[in-house]
């Protein structure tokens, strides 16, 4: 099977199972991320109070951690929800948004990184900072290209984490015992950086796909890291396909956002297969 | 007078009075709920800090309590705002979203229920859980049909609370001294469950109508429970009519959400009268 | 040079520099305000936790303070971010939303006012209340006209603060050593009051322009107060032009909001020059 076959099978399973995705995510993008999950076929739950976030994580299928505009409730909730996911072995996604903007933020993100996410999804500057455990970010904008971040992504991959780097082209990097794989996905829309929350909600959709992969016949026999890599790639294909469809309907970033949600809802397996991808495999470092 | 006459009169009064509706509501849907209230003709205020929520409740006309993603500020604010409404006798709405997801959440919702809401609005699973004081929810999705919830709604009605159950058809259940009435409203759009906050913002609009009913000539002489039932039904008719109009314009959930707000703004009394309804009356249990 | 030449130059510089604007702003409008900044050409960052808001303010170019639905995190963050801006001399914007709704809210807004904002932007009732250090607001709606607020705005201007009053026409009032200037901007769309966050996000855009003025060749030699007045006026022209363009595309407040973001993205210097303005100059009081 090829990537596109896996992606199509994952999309169909996601729509059948409607995975419940707990998002501990910045308040700026909660509405958009919830709408992205609903439109794509998943079920959102932004449960982020320490009184019940860990309990809720027991029934959640997926989990996204994103400290964009954290409250103390969110820092405490993340600790609890991550613990629940770690105990059950369910895969979860870390979005290192804001890595490097302050020592405090960076230390909280590193604490999450060291708790074992299956996937890290961020822009190039965030992935580089995370891999080097240092950073100097400028808000949520990347000052590096995706190519700049491939070495950093490979080092995360070799540590057992699927690294997804977002940019004009996206790169999904993951390793198995013998090799490091890089899937590149090209397309999307130039309006995407002008809509808040596209990156954050891609993290949410990636968590939905990661929750689906162990329950999809075509991917369940793959090794966990390759299976998770396929899930991350499928989420990015779904996003890219919706963005391309929306771009043809939009007259600016506002109408783009509405058509993008329409696109996420309408995309089918054949649409994913039409997106331009490349897969390269290298030795482990 | 019939339901549709009451509903039309309430809509006209709402637009004249622009009731100020305080919403203590989850951050995921604050923007959408505020836009729903503005588009429909009411005035939103999401005042939810314990330092002034109770004070603000003195000037608010309506109140919605919804603990979807509560902060500690919201739990404390709700206590204060509910006290203010209880002292003045103004009607307020409880949305039991999240009932059953954790012992903590359930206990906070029961505490609000026991403080005397005029209306409870939720999906079938939430209404059943609330009436039985037990629940096992899966996020915000209902696992029951509206018909499943009619007995639970009737038991709330007989305890003096108007129960509004949302689903493919909506049911508004309320009791007077001699009978229990069930108003069923059919219509809407299959896109509604794919837009976050439609249920929550229906609760907000219900609070706006409840605040209007005592000031509407045609409803002010009805008994409080029947008057409140008419207000809840009018809010659901307004919502359903806007959804039907939007459905014909939409190409997916993103464009639906924009056209739905347009529809709420454009709907008039004649539109409410065109929605399919049924009214059945039974004895009290 | 005339106002419109300054405004056009500021717009071009804003798009080149993409100023990073820290917004401590109510959660209801965080998404919309972020989308407004992105569409217009700036970069938003809603950093509002006391652990790093003051640190982040060191790299932010602009700052908006708006206590619409404050958390305790936001009150504490504002103190820190304002201190950082005060030390560096960078201009920041205060939006006195909610002034007068409670003694607590009013005292926090007065504390911010006394910390030296370059610009205050609000509706007529808020500006009057602020200038008189008293108020009796009804949520976020103004119960006064812009003309009613001109004397209050002039008193703020003579105290060294640029006052921007929003309404059907907007007035920007600022003083230099010899005179008080009032720029009136007419236009926009009647849908604007039916979309939540238009006022708040105008504050955010004003902060972006204020951050741009010292770096724009055409305005950098103006006195700081006149330069800041030009920046505030340019932000309001940009907003008004986008609203007018959106109005022709919209069929209600929902589609208006989408087209408004498109308009902010598309507006150029020539569009700003087409908006109706008046500039009157009087003596200082």
Overview of this structure, please?
- 3 copies of one chain form a homotrimer.
- With 285 residues, chain A is an alpha/beta fold.
- The first copy, chain A, has one domain: UDP-N-acetylmuramoyl-L-alanine:D-glutamate ligase.
- Chain A is 49% helix and 17% strand.
- Chain A contains 11 helices and 9 strands.
- A 9-stranded mixed sheet of chain A has the order 2-1-3-4-5-6-7-8-9, sandwiched between helices.
- Chain A is globular.
- The relative contact order of chain A is 0.17.
- The model of chain A has no long low-confidence stretch (mean pLDDT 94).
Terminal-residue CA separation of chain A: 27 Å
Most extensive interface: pair and counts?
A-B, 33 and 34 residues
Q: Secondary-structure element sequence of chain A?
A: HEHEHEHEHEHHEEEHHHHE
CATH secondary-structure class of chain A: Alpha Beta
| Major beta-sheet overview of chain A | 9 strands, mixed
* Class based on secondary structure composition and strand pairing of chain A: alpha/beta
Give the uncertain stretches of chain A in residue-range form.
Answer: none
User: Oligomeric form of this entry?
Assistant: homotrimer
CATH topology of chain A: UDP-N-acetylmuramoyl-L-alanine:D-glutamate ligase
Question: Overall mean pLDDT score of chain A?
Answer: 94
Provide the helix percentage of chain A: 40-55%
CATH superfamily caption of chain A: Ribokinase
* Named CATH architecture of chain A: 3-Layer(aba) Sandwich
Count of DSSP H/I helices of chain A:
11
Write down the domain tally of chain A: 1
């Amino acid at each position: 099977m090829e990537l596109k076959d896996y992606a199509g099978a994952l999309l169909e399973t996601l729509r059948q199972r409607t995975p419940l995705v707990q998002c501990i995510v910045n308040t700026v993008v909660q509405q958009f991320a919830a709408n992205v999950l609903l439109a794509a076929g998943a079920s959102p739950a932004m449960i982020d109070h320490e009184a019940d976030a860990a309990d809720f994580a027991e029934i959640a299928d997926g989990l996204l951690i994103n400290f964009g505009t954290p409250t103390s409730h969110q820092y405490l909730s993340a600790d609890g929800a991550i613990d629940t996911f770690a105990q059950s072995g369910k895969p979860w996604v870390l979005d290192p948004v804001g890595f490097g903007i302050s020592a405090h933020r960076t230390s909280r993100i590193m604490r999450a990184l060291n708790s074992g996410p299956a996937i890290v999804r961020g822009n190039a500057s965030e992935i580089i900072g995370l891999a080097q455990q240092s950073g100097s970010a400028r808000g949520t904008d990347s000052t590096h290209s995706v190519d700049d971040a491939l070495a950093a992504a490979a080092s995360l991959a070799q540590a057992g984490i699927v690294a997804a780097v977002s940019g004009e082209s996206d790169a999904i990097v993951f390793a198995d015992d013998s090799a490091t794989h890089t899937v590149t996905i090209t397309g999307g829309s130039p309006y995407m950086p002008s809509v808040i929350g596209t990156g954050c909600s891609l993290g949410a959709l990636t968590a939905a796909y990661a929750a689906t992969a162990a329950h999809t016949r075509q991917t369940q026999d793959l090794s966990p890291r390759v299976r998770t890599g396929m899930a991350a790639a499928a989420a990015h294909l779904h996003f890219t396909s919706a963005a391309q469809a929306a771009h043809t309907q939009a007259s600016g970033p506002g109408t783009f956002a509405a058509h993008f949600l329409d696109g996420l809802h309408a995309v089918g397996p054949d649409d994913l297969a039409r997106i331009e991808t490349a897969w390269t495999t290298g030795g482990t470092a």
